[in-house]
């Protein structure tokens, strides 16, 4: 029983980390049709910002610095590089892929390729006893952070003026601009929110793994894309469920099958989902033709 509890909560903690990454990806793509391959670099930037401040300042300050770093970099990327390319999606991909390679290389050039230990505060370094299992405290922190982010994103998209402006701007930017609304500011805000979530994921991911490294964000980005594709682009609830499922499947597969097979299982599920969607779309096309 204790093993089951530990695996479940560890899997949910990992899924929460994936959600923090995937929610930013889903938000940017779902609202702006921008596939941001530099998102992993923002995760790395947030992780190193937290690592540099941990031990010198309260951990809450390190988390805030990671969020601010991710948001500032994302806003700069959108303003300088993405904004001129909204009508050129292929160039967007090339630019973000290049940034996704260049920023981690810059981090490696400054701090080296070796992983750096991130010393979590005492409050997060301990364990909590639950149903006979000793569960690391940081798992609960990750799960709580994911729940808060999920609620905040749903509120932003459905209840705030900027959320409605962005959704309208994607559908008909010219009309929204003609109404005197500056869509550019709203788009920059969305990009900054995605970057802030990436920075938060980097900081909490450093706590989860106990260290930060230049390629950590890129590695996590792969599973972020897996989660987004399974959950659905722009579907926050679907992304949350997919993230939890992927995290649980990875943990249980690694424990009951073999270490390392969890990654394969996640990709296998992605393949099954894509094939199922392809078959479903094919059936719909046949039905339409028959009608």
Automatic annotation (TrEMBL):
Keyword Cell membrane: yes
Bilayer-spanning residue ranges: 6-27, 57-81, 93-111, 140-157, 187-209, 221-249, 255-276
Keyword Cytoplasm attached: no
Bilayer topology: Multi-pass membrane protein
Subcellular location: Cell membrane
Alphabetic keyword roster: Amino-acid transport, Cell membrane, Membrane, Transmembrane, Transmembrane helix, Transport
Family in the record: Belongs to the binding-protein-dependent transport system permease family. LivHM subfamily.
UniProt name for this protein: Branched-chain amino acid ABC transporter permease
């Amino acid at each position: 029983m204790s093993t089951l509890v530990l695996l479940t909560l560890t899997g949910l903690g990992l899924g929460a980390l994936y959600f923090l990454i995937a929610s930013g990806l889903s938000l940017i793509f779902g609202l702006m049709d921008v596939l941001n391959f530099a998102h992993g670099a923002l995760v790395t930037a947030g992780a190193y910002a937290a690592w540099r401040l941990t031990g010198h300042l309260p951990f809450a300050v390190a988390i805030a610095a990671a969020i601010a770093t991710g948001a500032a970099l994302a806003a700069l990327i959108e303003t300088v590089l993405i904004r001129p390319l909204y009508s050129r999606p292929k160039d967007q991909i090339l630019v973000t892929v290049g940034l996704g390679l260049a920023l981690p290389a810059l981090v490696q050039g400054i701090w080296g390729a070796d992983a750096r230990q991130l010393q979590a505060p005492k409050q997060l370094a301990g364990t909590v006893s639950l149903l006979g299992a000793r569960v690391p405290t940081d798992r609960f922190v990750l799960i709580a952070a994911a729940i808060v982010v999920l609620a905040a994103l749903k509120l932003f998209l459905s209840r705030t003026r900027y959320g409605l402006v962005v959704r309208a701007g994607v559908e008909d930017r010219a009309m929204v601009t003609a109404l005197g609304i500056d869509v550019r500011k709203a788009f920059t805000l969305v990009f900054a929110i995605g970057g802030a979530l990436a920075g938060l994921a980097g900081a909490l991911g450093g706590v989860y793994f106990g260290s930060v490294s230049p390629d950590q964000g890129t590695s996590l980005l792969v599973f972020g894309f897996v989660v987004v594709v399974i959950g659905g682009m722009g579907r926050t609830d679907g992304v949350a469920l997919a993230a939890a499922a992927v995290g649980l499947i990875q943990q249980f597969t690694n424990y009951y099958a073999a270490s390392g097979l969890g990654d394969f299982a996640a990709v296998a599920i992605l393949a099954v989902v894509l094939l199922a969607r392809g078959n479903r779309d094919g059936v719909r096309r046949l039905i339409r033709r028959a009608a």
